[in-house]
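Exercise: predict the fold of this chain.
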Amino acid sequence: MKTYVMSDIHGREDAYFDMLEQIGFDDFGKRDKLYIIGDVVDRGVGGIRILQHIMKNKDKIELLMGNHELMMLQAIENNDYTLWMYNGGLVTYEHFIALPKRRRAELRVFLEGCKYRKTVVANGKKYYLVHGRPYLPATKTQGAMSYGIYSMPLQDQTIWDKMRIWYQLENQTVVFGHVCTKKYDEDVDNKEHYEIYEYENMIGIDCGCAYTDGKGRLGCLCLHTGERYYSTFVVTEI
């Protein structure tokens, strides 16, 4: 059995399918699993196609909610597209409305069913998977960030807030995305590309697939073996 995690694909289907080939997705056994911890859509052109691939393979892939999936859902439900468009949602919207009505409804139901967090065990070690940061009482997070995050429901805060050292959990390693690992890695200026970041009980796996500076790429981590994979497609445009 092997368990893989990746995040923040942001419509880069070239990087996504390259990664699936690297980890041998077509040869997955019944117990092998890939968790994508949010932000499949927006900025790049392939977000809807990636979602459709996940839906067709939901026995092998589980998508957790990211803030971009939530923005998409809320925009559709409330008929207010301002926030979503501001955050790179136009290309996803254009591909979404081009779908037949039945396909749009199926995709919406699928997204509504995405969980916000997941605990998995690999080699006897617990991993807490979440897009932004763990679900914590307001007293432990209040005042750590502005931008109206703390007016949101606690569940939504977990995908909008960023991971911090004091959000670590005892006896669990938090695996998160949302913020590129360059924001955590002090040596990033000396590295050719952004890498998976690990510190104590936290692992960041957003390696900048939405960045266009030539250092961004898609990262993937195997929780059972510790192997790290990176897309061969370096992002220079999106």
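Check your answer against the key: The chain has eight helices and ten strands.
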